[in-house]
Write a structure and sequence with these properties.
Layout lengths: L13 H9 L6 H12 L1 H12 L8 H18 L2 E5 L10 E6 L6 E7 L14 E3 L2 E3 L3 H20 L7 E7 L9 H4 L1 H9 L2 E4 L4 E3 L2 E3 L7 E9 L16 H17 L6 E10 L1 E5 L4 E5 L8 E9 L3 H16 L6 E10 L6 H16 L26 E3 L6 E2 L7 E3 L2 H22 L1
Parallel strand pairs: 3-6, 3-7, 7-16
Antiparallel strand pairs: 1-2, 2-6, 4-5, 5-18, 8-9, 10-14, 10-15, 11-14, 12-13, 17-18
Helix pairs in contact: 2-5, 2-11, 3-5, 4-5, 5-11, 8-9
Length: 441
């Protein structure tokens, strides 16, 4: 559930940069040791990626999601984590989540977040991993089965360096990130509890790099929905706008949407979208399926209208202000019309806190030490919502810790395979430096 727009030409020299990183002067001997191990095991990481990409795991393909969970559980068990498959109640209609835990002897507590599902359901034609040299295509290869692999190999590198007990970790692989089950109070309960436990949360959806360089994700916007329902007085169209008939449902909806555009649009990081609209004499709309039917005639003043839309904000305060403003617009009805708007809260925002900025500075230092330059903060408008937002209010958080790819949520989804090593090094070095910092305090 993201909107990264990586430019392919920006990642062509990645292999050179990774190679340089292994001997960069800014890395200490432990980091160089881990970098060499990660490079030596890149093909093993690619093999794990291929195995999981070849398992179709669209959110509603519960068997496929569970099968990917079996593979990732095997990997976490081999590292030494205590793993658990968390089933969801049958009425939620989701496969469940995989969690792995390891308690160290001290140091910080990390929450590492991935997800097992993709947007490609079992009947989709895009189902297989296809490699062409350093590039590969496949369903979920960027979003986010590569990030799941990065988590495993970062922990393996830390274990190989004898550092696994220097920190505690929970790995959370959710099974319904692309189409989250409801209520969220149940489907995200275990993730939120892990966020309250953690000192630091890292999300492993794909990284973003473009012609300007690499970017760090310290903020992500919320994702909620709204439904506008409008009624008018059904009558012969010859009388529209007179004092007995009024404006009708469609003109009232047009007024509301125009005022949203003119009066509420424009605040930084606030966007709202009208996704579907159904209006006429009779309207049926199924929000769960995002489809409906309409009947009306040009000589009848329309009686009903439904608009289904989405809203994204950078903070809960911004969301509340936007909802209040939209309600005020809706309440100013044209003659003989009524309107109401309901909001359905979904993914919360991940605000750009001071703690998140501290993590960004550390990641930027790591990136420079690897020879890739600074990592400034990414504009939150360039990413969508993600599971890390559920825990960001409880702990310092950084997203976009995965590899580099393009085409997420499309049949052109692809990954530059050697950036698995780049992302794995960044993650391992960050955990190592934060653990060392903690032990030095």
């Amino acid at each position: 559930m993201k909107a990264s727009k990586l430019l392919l030409n920006s990642i062509l020299p990645v292999a050179l940069c990774i190679s340089m990183g292994a001997s960069a002067a800014g890395l200490d001997s432990t980091e160089r040791q881990m970098a060499e191990w990660i490079d030596a095991n890149l093909e093993n990481a690619i093999s794990l990626l291929e195995e999981t990409v070849n398992i179709g795991s669209g959110t509603m393909n519960h068997d496929g999601v569970r099968e990917v969970g079996v593979v990732m559980r095997r990997e976490l068990d081999a590292i030494g984590l205590d793993t658990e498959w968390i089933e969801m109640p049958p009425e939620i209609n989701r496969a469940g989540h995989l969690f792995g835990r390891h308690e160290g002897t001290g140091g910080p507590k990390f929450l590492l977040i991935g997800h097992l599902d993709t947007v490609f359901e079992a009947d989709d034609s895009f189902q297989a991993f296809v490699r062409d040299g350093n590039s590969a295509q496949g369903p979920g290869i960027e979003d986010m089965k590569s990030g799941n692999v990065v988590i495993v190999y970062a922990l393996l590198a830390l274990k190989e360096a004898g550092l696994l007990d220097d920190f505690s970790v929970v790995v959370a692989y959710t099974g319904d990130e692309e189409k989250s089950g409801k209520p969220l109070s149940i489907t995200r309960k275990d993730l939120i509890e892990a966020g309250k436990w953690a000192d630091i949360a890292l999300g492993f959806e794909s990284a973003i790099s473009d012609e300007e360089g690499d970017w760090a994700t310290i903020a992500r916007r919320s994702s909620s929905s709204w439904t506008l329902k409008v009624t008018g007085k059904q009558a012969h169209s010859s009388g529209i706008f007179d004092e007995n008939t009024g404006a009708g449902a469609i003109f009232e909806a047009a007024r509301i949407l125009n005022e949203f555009y003119e009066d509420i649009r424009g605040e930084q990081h606030l966007t709202f979208n009208a996704g579907t609209i159904q209006g006429g004499t009779d309207v049926e709309y199924d929000a769960s399926q995002n489809r409906g039917t309409t009947f009306g005639k040009t000589n009848i003043v329309p009686r009903e209208l439904v608009v289904h839309g989405g809203i994204r904000t950078i903070s809960e305060d911004q969301l509340q202000r936007a909802m209040d403003a939209m309600r005020e617009v809706v309440a100013r009805n044209l003659p003989h019309t009524t309107a109401s708007i309901e909001f359905k809260l979904g993914y919360p925002s991940m605000s750009p806190t001071a703690g998140n900025r501290r993590l960004q500075i550390l990641l930027s230092d790591i990136n420079k030490d690897m020879g890739r330059g600074e990592m400034p903060s990414l504009d939150p408008s360039r990413r969508g919502a993600a599971d890390i937002s559920f825990v960001a209010q409880y702990t310092d958080a950084l997203a976009g810790m995965g590899a580099l790819g393009v085409g997420g949520h499309t049949p052109n989804e692809s990954l530059e395979l050697d950036t698995l090593a780049l992302a794995t090094k960044r993650a391992a070095f960050m955990i190592y430096r934060l653990s060392r910092e903690s032990h030095q305090e």
